[in-house]
Amino acid sequence: MGFLKTCVLGRHAHTAVCFWRSKVVQKPSLRKIRTSSPRNNVMPAWVIDKYGKNEVLRFTQNMMIPIIHYPNEVIIKVHAASVNPIDVNMRSGYGATALNMKRDPLHIKTKGEEFPLTLGRDVSGVVMECGLDVKYFKPGDEVWAAVPPWKQGTLSEFVVVSGNEVSHKPKSLTHTQAASLPYVALTAWSAINKVGGLNDQNCMGKRVLILGASGGVGTFAIQVMKAWDAHVTAVCSQDASELVKKLGADDVIDYKSGSVEEQLKSLKPFDFILDNVGGSTETWALNFLKKWSGATYVTLVTPFLLNMDRLGIADGMLQTGFTVGSKALKIRPVIEQTFPFSQVPEAFLKVERGHARGKTVINVV
């Protein structure tokens, strides 16, 4: 969808005011958006008006269509999104203080002005509009993105993202498949590469342990580690063992068959441990790292945001590290179940129950 617009430069060179004409330039298969008419400025979305359990999720046909505020932003028509554990936690208020600080660093807004809040971090869809500084995308491009948790999410018909948060969708993936990857890919990559220091040049022969290996992050991490010729030991339940073996895991430990700690004692120490479980694992996992070798333990179950809620804003800030390039991955998407847009609450309940076997995806279109 394209709009005809007239832009007038403001007093400063970096600002511009755009006046939209009512005429719509039509492109095949893209929705007509008429910003000149208030009746067409709304869209369907799943939102929350307060933090709480699953009953706070509310479907509305009257969420305002997002607009471009900065010249590096694009508007995406959402074809598919997915539900991550962070969405379930945010629904319950996890990290609200820290995220609101990021949304409103000058404390201009009053408490509760983040509502109605749209959840959802992953998106695959089609570009509808581009800001003036966007050079790499145009309306009609198929893209995928991971939206930071302080922004309005993707469980809606349209979402606005920054240019550095979006990439061209790999042509080999459907929108449903693509929506299962961005957020878990960024999470796993940050743990493995940015924190663990592992890459395709130094990973051969390294011993890697993945706790909680059958979820979205775990299934992605297994494939990356095996692509880099590491030896991977996966911890999951017995009914997920076939899945992780197909993804390349060398050894599989069933946490339901006995103490994981006792089972690991029979194996050689590890160069890298990725913990997607947390809790009691944090008390013993370090014992299974190679001694005096620079081995690394990374847990993705962190109390950081929760502690900021309890203790107030500490030094530090949240930021995205990188985007997923369309040529960077040859990863098999692992999707456990898809839901129609009308069943978003059911998808949240499924993720909340845990014991994932890959990702839970929402087909919006």
Explain what the structure shows.
The protein has 365 residues and is α/β, with parallel strands linked by helices. 21% of the residues lie in helices and 28% in strands. The protein has ten helices and 17 strands. The protein has helices at 85-91, 96-103, 175-178, 182-195, 216-227, 241-246, 260-264, 281-284, 304-311, 344-353; strands at residues 2-9, 16-25, 42-48, 57-64, 73-83, 117-118, 122-130, 142-146, 158-162, 166-168, 207-211, 231-236, 251-254, 272-275, 296-299, 335-340, 359-363. Strands 5, 7, 8, 9, 10, 16 and 17 form a seven-stranded mixed sheet that branches. Strands 13-12-11-14-15 form a five-stranded parallel sheet. Strand 16, helix 10 (344-353) and strand 17 (359-363) form a beta-alpha-beta unit. Helix 2 crosses helix 9 and helix 4 (182-195) packs across helix 5 (216-227). The radius of gyration is 22 Å and the shape is globular.
- Please bin the fraction of helical residues: 10-25%
Q: Average the pLDDT over all residues and give the rounded result.
A: 84
Strand content: 25-35%
Count of DSSP-assigned helices:
10
Structural class, from helix and strand content? Answer: alpha/beta
- Total count of strands: 17
How far apart are the termini? 16 Å
Helix and strand element order = EEEEEHHEEEEEHHEHEHEHEHEHEHE
Reported for the largest beta sheet, the result is: 7 strands, mixed
Principal-axes geometry comes out as: globular
Poorly predicted runs are: 1-39, 313-329
- Return Rg in Å: 22 Å
